[in-house]
Amino acid sequence: MTHKQKRMLIRILIATVLFVGAFTTEHLLHPSEWILLPIYAAAYLVVGWDILWKAIRNIAHGQIFDENFLMAIASLGAFAMRKFDESVAVMLLYQVGELFQSYAVNKSRNAISSLVELRPDLATVERNGELLEVDPDEIAVGEIIVVKTGERIPLDGIITEGNSTLDTAALTGESLPRSVTVGEEALSGCINQSGLLKIRVTKPFAQSTVSKILELVEEASERKSKSEAFITRFAKYYTPFVVIAAVLLSIIPPIVTGNFLNGAVWLKWVSRALTFLVISCPCALVISVPLSFFGGIGGASRNGILIKGSNYLEALAAVDTIAFDKTGTLTQGTFTVAGLYPANGTSEEQLLEWAATAESFSTHPIANSLRTAYGKSIAKENIQNVQEIAGNGVQATINGQIVMVGKAAMLQKQNITIPENRKEIQGTKVFVAVDNLYRGCILITDPIKPTASKAIQQIKELGIQKTVLLSGDTEQTAKAVADTLHIDEVHAQLLPQDKVQCLEDLLHKQKKGTLLAYVGDGINDAPVLTRADVGIAMGAMGSDAAIEAADIVLMDDNPDKLSTAIRIARKTKYIVRENIVFALGVKAIVLMLGALGLANMWAAVFADVGVAMIAICNAIRTLRIKK
């Protein structure tokens, strides 16, 4: 409980003691009103002075019609009509509701703000043989940091010394620790559970995993859902309407019935109008709807899913088509050379050397797999005129020979003939030509992720109507993956611009009221992630560009987190609708009863504070999402 909440609790307790004392004295001893008035007034001011002050301050700033104004007018009006107990009870219960609401908001906020604890205040860096504690912002790329057992890793890097297990729960939501050793990546925000680690920093703090998470958290509260926008607009017109209706309720009936000179009649209708004002307070809607979305975002973060705003959470609930990138999303993205098929007198070693040398400057995973399989140092001084042809391959001059390494289409464009039997090999194929002569084919495999099949099955069980695979790979390879995972539709051999066009076509086919999500992880996925109704990036292995472009980030490489995200989104939206229908329904009924004189101030308190507390309790359910 915060300091502010503790102070409010003390005020409520003091006011309750005064109220109970006055109420008991009134009904047992029946003293004069002048004896009761100071006690009730003290109770009222102790618990409600801040509401009165907010109402006065808001009126001074031109913001008249809000819940503070409604509560101030209604409670002061009841006080003026000598309904002291009802006046104090209204304010007391309203503040109890406010305290409960504050606690609920903090509970939801803590689910997200706990991520802020990921930010380290200090990092230990090794400089000139000494260990220094400095601000992580002051550590440069390439420096060595030291992380002891129990410490949180402050910056992203590669382990240069030591073995350990890392607690990744804060990033991924997974309780199972991950074993790491020399040469493996260590992400900031993970906790070193055993052994001392030395890590070479690969990213400045501003670009680290922790910094990106904090940016996403800060942005999340700024993007409002349609439901929240509706409630904001609704409250803007609703509150002035009910104030005017209350004024008319106090004036018109006495005039119409011809009793406008009768003080008792005026008092009766003014009392009904004040009750009407308390009933009409829109707290339940104004608080519970954003609280539901905030809770949903918090529940998602506990499961290693970062959602950049409630608008994206709401949109995800309406998704019925999901398109996937293949490499790194549904497959492991760790390519290995599985076969060498030389031709025209070329040896396997020569074929692999040409391919690895031509790809020596590329950072593409396939290029990395070729260099790893070659396993020898490459004389880069013998390489000239390197041209990377986006989505197709590489051309380079090596020792005076023009070497082309890439897709079949790239070679065929130069009228290089590829044997038909080589085109039929299952898997990703890299074709090699030297001086316009075909020299062979290299088979690259990329295993499907163990959880990919389960992920597709789970989202179909949730009612996703269509799954689509968008891949830059060959038709054969893409179709083989799609068949294994039971994906409905396949589009292969797509360049980055082709993926965008393909997604546009899918969007045009969407039924009204349904949305399309795209899941990807690479730099080439960034334009598609931006164009989709909901862009979802794989966070652990995904590129910075993909994470930046996405609306939702899965903080590990596990695609079955997608079904969890969808369940959270749908549960949140369902709870929001429950709260809207419940709050408006109860208020409509009690408002009519109040206008007819069938509901007193105690019923009004239930319609306001009671409904708000029930709606808030319902909203907190969004935090309780099982993995």
Task: Walk me through the structure.
The protein is elongated and about 115 Å long. The mean pLDDT is 82. Strands 10-22-21-20-11-18-19 form a 7-stranded mixed beta sheet, with helices on both faces. It has a 6-stranded antiparallel beta sheet with strand order 2-1-3-9-4-7, with no helix packed on it. It has a 6-stranded antiparallel beta sheet with strand order 12-17-16-15-14-13. It is 52% helix and 17% strand. It contains 21 helices and 22 strands. Helix 20 (561-595) packs antiparallel against helix 21 (601-620). With 627 residues, the chain is an alpha+beta fold. It starts with a helix and ends in a 7-residue tail after the last helix.
Q: Quick summary of this structure?
A:
The protein is of the alpha+beta class. Helices cover 52% and strands 17% of the residues.
SSE topology:
Elements: H1 3-29, H2 33-60, H3 67-80, H4 84-113, E1 123-127, E2 130-134, E3 144-147, E4 157-161, E5 164-167, H5 169-172, E6 178-180, E7 185-186, E8 191-192, E9 197-201, H6 209-220, H7 226-256, H8 263-280, H9 283-302, E10 305-307, H10 310-317, E11 319-325, E12 336-342, H11 348-358, H12 365-374, E13 383-389, E14 393-398, E15 401-406, H13 408-412, H14 420-423, E16 428-434, E17 437-445, H15 452-461, E18 466-470, H16 475-485, E19 489-491, H17 496-508, E20 515-520, H18 526-531, E21 534-538, H19 544-549, E22 552-554, H20 561-595, H21 601-620
Parallel strand pairs: 11-18, 11-20, 18-19, 20-21, 21-22
Antiparallel strand pairs: 1-2, 1-3, 3-9, 4-7, 4-9, 5-6, 5-8, 10-22, 12-17, 13-14, 14-15, 15-16, 16-17
Helix pairs in contact: 1-2, 1-4, 2-3, 2-4, 3-4, 3-8, 4-9, 4-21, 7-8, 7-9, 8-20, 8-21, 9-20, 9-21, 10-20, 11-12, 20-21
